[in-house]
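Escalated from tier 1: zinc ion holo job.
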Amino acid sequence: MIVEPVRAFSDNYIWMILNDIRSHCAIVDPGDAQPVIQWLEREGVEPVAILITHHHGDHVGGVRNLVSRFPGLEVYGPASERIPAITQTLVEGDIVHLGELGLEFSVLDVPGHTAGHIAYLGQGALFCGDTLFAGGCGRVFDGTFQQLCASLKKIRDLPEETLVYCAHEYTLDNLGFAKWVEPDNPELLLRDDHDMALQEKGIPTVPSRLALEKATNPFLRFDVPAVIQRAEQQAGRSLAEACEVFTVLRQWKDSEYD
Ligand code: ZN
Ligand code: FE
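Tier 2 regenerated the structure:
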């Protein structure tokens, strides 16, 4: 498997999943068709499927144009959300077989950012849309804080070497908030320097390893004593449960940082 980004809008990544001989590909969350079509023509790759994580326009906006341009395209997406031109609805545990690519992905339910958000896991890679970001996580829109917390726990339990392909380049911004939470976390400070250097060269900071997220992303660290303490200080009360800590962090970022 080869994975390459196509950039869209100001900070979206549309992930192109290719077989090793670069003959066919699947397209994850094409919010815009134009940059995808340009990439396909330039690379001479034939698309076979679109994989959608959730219903937001910056993830599905290009689907109809792509399907009319490539009529054989299968469109996979969450069963409980309205996705344009969808042909295959998915729920947790389903397997997506991409025959032409020789690849398979299993489906995880990861609600919270939206109520029906799903993620695709296979070949050691996780395509998680706007659920987990490098250094951060999505906002709660039509899901709940409790759902997003449970989804992040589910992701945190995957193998540490998993590569996380999120859908936006928000990393440096996210790490700024992470430093509010854990100003003395040495791995976080190293990551911040490292990712800043990548950004200065115009290189994507995504994907990232789950192990690095667990060491530096406050939204996976809601049971680390220093993080609990910081959240309690922010809330002005003690927090008994991990998901309360998570919720305080997410609301703090929403209200004072973003
Ligand atoms: Zn979204
Ligand atoms: Fe998005």
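The two ends are 35 Å apart (CA to CA).
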